[in-house]
Amino acid sequence: MAAHSDKNPRTLDPRYDLLRFLPTTVKEMEMRGWEQPDVILFSGDAYVDHPSFGAAVIGRTLEAAGLRVAIVPQPNWRDDLRDFRKLGRPRLFFGVSAGAMDSMVNHYTAARRLRHDDAYTPGGRHGARPDYPTIVYTDILKRLFPDVPVIAGGIEASLRRLSHYDYWQDRLRPSILSDCRADMIIYGMGEQAIREIARRLQNGEKISEITDVPQTVLSLPSGTTLPENTIRLHSFEECLKNKRCQAENFKHIEIESNRMSGSPLVQLTAGKEILVNPMYPPMTTEQVDATFDLPYTRLPHPRYKGKEIPAYNMIRHSVCMHRGCFGGCAFCTISAHQGKFIASRSKESILREARQVTAMHDFKGYISDLGGPSANMYAMGGFDRSKCARCTRPSCLHPKPCPNLNNDHRPLLDIYHSVDALPGVKKSFIGSGVRYDLSMAPHPDEKVCRANEQYNRELIASHVSGRLKVAPEHTSDRVLAIMRKPSFSLFHKFKRFFDKVNAQEGLRQQLIPYFISSHPGCTAEDMAELAAETKQLDFHLEQVQDFTPTPMTVATEIYYTGLHPYTLEPLYTATTPAQKQEQRAFFFWYERDMRPQIIASLRRMHRPDLVDRLYGRTYTPQHPQAGRPEAPRSKRPAKHRR
Fold first, then answer.
1. Is the pLDDT score of 1 beyond 60?
2. How far apart are CA 273 and CA 264, in angstroms?
3. Terminal CA-CA length for the chain
4. At a CB cut-off of 8 Å and minimum separation 6, what does 616 contact?
5. How many helices (H) and strands (E) does the chain have?
6. What domain count does the chain have?
7. Are residues 20 and 145 in the same domain?
8. Burial zone of 321 (CB within 10 Å; 0-12 exposed, 13-18 middle, 19+ buried)
């Protein structure tokens, strides 16, 4: 015992053991005896060594391949660029990621107002990364080390891999590979691609010679010989001139992103061919396990000295069980990045991570989430995989659940039961979004139907922390069809089941629905109907959002082009601040300050019935003052009233 008495107690605590993390400084490299790293990663996020943070996943993947990997989190791009110089030149390449979010979504609200916090920065501090870090970081690295390959990845680069509408600049932009100086982009979940590229660079190939790795984006000279099955999109310049060309392109992009074996895509841009190689086939269970079983500390790097990182706090006691989402929602980017085919972990791998969570110093017995991109798609897919291999549907659930979809929730129930049985676990919660249209969809086996109903029952009775959040998104079936979401009648059915289970279990839990305003196809009248219908259900809406166009979604293409990419039919979209504010106001019909604005809108629509439904019979067309809010009574003497 005496041998340890003169040591800093932090050196004995694994939370402060620098050798358990990827090195971030020269000193940390020297502790390992390194003179030069093989790869240096630059990230717009703080370094959290956890499988939910992409830079950590890529770093650990390369480390497992035998490479020396260092990481520079949130480098200062405003000063003399010492953060970009401090680790020197890597032997193989630099890797660049803007972080776990598109930087513009991270920085700005749907109203294009600057946010004042950043969940991926210590202390939630804003300003630790620039707008478009992919562009800024790669340009700096190429200025300092022009001969070192730079490979960009992460969601910002992934979703901007071809021409895309940028909401924050309100213009069509080319592939981000045209705007930055990266040699290559990896899109989607990048472990397989980065491992293959590193192997080939180690074997002496030049970065310019590596053109056939799946999930990579390359800039090639015009006239380059391309694979026979390559789909040629309208050029960026054509898309600039004609929005219809951009809409037509997107249909091909989404279909190929969601195919089990897609075709290459190419788009001529400023005289260069932007080639997008198809995605890898869906990862096997063994491959997904290998990623999640890497030696993550599951902790922020000690450099942050205990400062809170809000995004980490949200997931520190959670377990992600699968990748991919086959919901295909029109406003969502998950399938464009992860694909629609589910890649699930084994039960053993999930339980190993759950045991790690229970061993954490701050674990109090509650696992915050057993989930994934959608909470209840674990271990699901087609009965006949050969049909899936030929499928081009962007959604397995819309317009109705695919008859080839096996929505058996029994494997998921088995995981829940096994995790809850672990020593130290008091309760596990489901914090990810639940697709009730999936758990309530029919199945040819009656035993599975009963198990799926049991899933819904156990979810409500045992895995809700007082409030279950679900995402009907709207009440109008016409708008929901554009969103690729089920009819609101199914939400009514689920709510009745939710209320029934609560009554049977003696619980007083809340069902919290998410809704979106200003989605393409949605009018102010649709929002007024939403307000009236949710009032009837006794909801005072909290989880609401104004539609934000993000690159590579159907909804964004409609917002920009005014056309649905699959039908090329025109669709109305609220685009001006006034139009968007009018729609958003209906979420808050119950706030007194909103009442005059809402009643005025309803009068313009000639919808006195909705005024009645929201506020009672206050509107009479014969009276010129009808529908206006009652003026507060004056406390002055009557002779002074006017």
1. no
2. 12
3. 87
4. none
5. 25, 24
6. 2
7. yes
8. buried
Q: Smallest Cα–Cα separation from 418: which of 410, 201, 12?
A: 410
Helix (H) or strand (E) run with residue 395 in it: none
Domain presence at residue 480: no
**Residue 340 belongs to domain spanning:** 317-465
The dihedral over CA atoms of 468, 469, 474, 479, expressed in degrees to the nearest 10, equals: -120
- Check residue 302 and report its DSSP letter: G
Q: Which of 290, 228, 387 is nearest to 65 (CA)?
A: 290
pTM of the model: 0.92
What distance in Å separates the CA atoms of residue 351 and residue 448, rounded to the nearest whole number? 24
The answer to whether residue 50 is domain-embedded is yes
Phi, psi of 70 (to 5 degrees): -120, 160
Q: What pLDDT does residue 366 have?
A: 97
Q: Rounded to an integer, what distance in angstroms lies between the CA atom of residue 334 and that of residue 314?
A: 19
447: in domain: yes
Based on the domain organization, do 327 and 187 belong to the same domain?
no
Q: Which of 183, 210, 237 is the last residue of a domain?
A: 210
> Does a cis peptide bond (omega within 30 degrees of 0) precede residue 565?
no
pLDDT in tens, 549-584: 999 999 999 999 999 999 999 999 999 999 999 999
Average pLDDT over residues 415-421: 98
The answer to the question of residue 226 being in a domain is no
Same domain, 326 and 202: no
pLDDT digit string (tens) for 315-356?
999 999 999 999 999 999 998 999 999 999 999 999 999 999
191-203 per-position pLDDT tens digit: 999 999 999 999 9
CATH, residue 449: 3.30.750.210
Q: What is the rounded distance in angstroms from the CA atom of residue 401 to the CA atom of residue 441?
A: 7
Residues of the chain with pLDDT > 70: what percent?
A: 94
pLDDT band at 543 (very low <50, low <70, confident <90, very high): confident
- Please tell me the distance from the alpha carbon of residue 504 to that of residue 502, in angstroms, as a whole number: 5
Give the SS3 label for residue 466. coil
Contacts of 270 (CB under 8 A, 6+ apart): 174, 178, 236, 237
Residues contacting 340, CB < 8 A, separation 6+:
258, 324, 325, 326, 328, 394, 395, 396
pLDDT higher than 60, residue 106 = yes
Q: Which of 189, 210, 231 is the last residue of a domain?
A: 210
The one-letter amino acid code at 451 reads A
Angle at 518 between CA 514 and CA 521, to 5 degrees: 105
Separation between Cα atoms, residue 584 and residue 515, nearest integer Å: 10
pLDDT of residue 465: 87
Q: Could you give the CA distance from residue 253 to residue 453 in angstroms, rounded to a whole number?
A: 37
Output DSSP code: residue 361: T
Distance (Å, rounded) from C-alpha 69 to C-alpha 58? 9
Residue 62, SS3 per DSSP? helix
| Across 22-48, average pLDDT | 97
Q: Tokens 């075709």 identify what position?
A: 263
Token representation of residue 419: 């995790």
CA 478, CA 473: separation in Å to the nearest integer? 12
Strand 467-473 and strand 510-517: the pairing is parallel
pLDDT classification of 619: cutoffs 50, 70, 90 = very low
Query: Token pair for residue 423?
Result: 């020593």
DSSP 564: -
DSSP state string for 107-146? HB-TTSPBPSB-TTSGGGBS-SS-SSHHHHHHHHHHHH-T
Residue linked to tokens 């000295």 = 305
